[in-house]
Write a structure and sequence with these properties.
five-stranded parallel sheet; 5 helices; alpha/beta; 162 residues
Length: 162
């Protein structure tokens, strides 16, 4: 069985100036786009290329979950459709991500109204109806990137040391 773990889009511009002031910059912040419609996935990826996140693509919840099992510590933002092929829906994926990897900012999107939001595991998940507004997606991605960056600084001891 061949599993698509996504592709990183346009990584070269992120690798320029990887060192500044003698410190290595962590280039591991990623956005994971989960959408089975190739055209919509392409649009989301093209939009997120405007952020400082590297983009990884998956076409199902199962592919996304497999990627996350290996690289969740690098993922800052999950942008997923609610209706996905196979068994796992976007809501199932968001619930799993919220419980296992709570630092990942998650946005669910759908052309239909979301009905399963009552679960407390989804209280921090944002819902964006389709067609989504580019500015709203970019704002959510930037918030994710900023939060992930702050978490890295704290874990490296750059803030709040005794």
């Amino acid at each position: 069985m061949s599993v698509h773990t996504g592709r990183i889009v346009n990584p070269n511009h992120k690798l320029r100036n990887a060192k500044r002031m003698g410190q290595r910059i962590n280039l591991s912040r990623k956005a994971l786009v989960v959408e089975d419609d190739a055209e919509l996935r392409f649009l989301a990826v093209a939009l997120l290329e405007e952020t400082d996140l590297e983009i990884v693509e998956a076409s199902s919840g199962e592919e996304a979950l497999q990627y996350l099992h290996h690289y969740a510590d690098e993922v800052a933002f999950l942008f997923s459709d609610v209706r996905l092929p196979c068994l796992m829906s976007g809501v199932d994926l968001a619930r799993t991500v919220s419980l296992k990897w709570p630092w990942i900012r998650t946005v669910l999107t759908s052309g239909a109204p979301l009905e399963e939001v009552s679960n407390t595991a989804l209280r921090d998940v944002r819902f964006m109806p389709k067609p989504w507004r580019a500015l709203e997606v970019l704002i959510e991605a930037e918030k994710a990137s900023d939060t992930h960056r702050m978490g890295e600084a704290l874990s490296c001891g750059h803030a709040g040391t005794h």
